[in-house]
Design goal:
Strand content: 35-45%
Shape: elongated
Order of helices and strands: HEEEEEEEEEEEHE
Structural class: mainly beta
Length: about 170
């Protein structure tokens, strides 16, 4: 009887402890500059996402493409836009290329690495969209306004979440 009680206690401790151990890779949206999770998308290293926003001056779409690296950084590898001007690239780095196709400029071969991204859901022009693709699955797309208030600020990081985090926080899904 005592042996069974010891085994049950150890099993219960292991199971309850596993609720708090971060193990699941995700792209996590934190509230402004805090560690308060607002939402997350399960994304592993090698998987990609895009943020499309309407430029507040040009009122045209800008697409920024990213992927999660093995060391949990966010790598920007492409940017697509239709007009030069405020907030848009005016030159490319030595290893980058730019071409024009179907009314859009594409800056490719970008190699910008970030620990995190600071993102504001548009307030005046609130048309941000988020696209992601998990390996071997179809592309998914949502509007930021489905999950976030217009004008809200976020810090976005590649991070690991625990079972408890995944249970209590908002999972972004199509």
């Amino acid at each position: 009887m005592k042996k069974w009680l010891v085994i049950a206690s150890i099993t219960l401790l292991i199971l309850s402890g596993s609720l708090f151990i971060p193990f699941k890779s995700a792209l996590v949206f934190y509230d402004e500059n805090t560690e308060d999770i607002v939402a997350y998308v399960p994304l592993k290293p090698g998987e990609s996402f895009q943020i499309i926003f309407t430029h507040s001056i040009h009122l045209k779409d800008v697409t920024e493409k990213y992927e999660i690296t093995k060391n949990k950084k966010i790598k920007q590898y492409e940017m697509i836009f239709s007009d030069f001007g405020i907030g848009m690239p005016y030159e490319v780095k030595e290893h980058e290329d730019i071409f024009y196709e179907n009314g859009f400029y594409h800056v490719i071969n970008m190699n910008n690495h970030f620990d995190s991204l600071k993102i504001r859901n548009g307030k005046t022009v609130s048309e941000h969209r988020f696209i992601w693709k998990e390996k071997k699955k179809k592309e998914k797309r949502i509007s930021f306004n489905d999950y976030f208030k217009p004008g809200a600020w976020f810090t976005v990081k590649s991070d690991k979440l625990s079972l408890l985090d995944m249970w209590k926080e908002v999972k972004i899904h199509e």
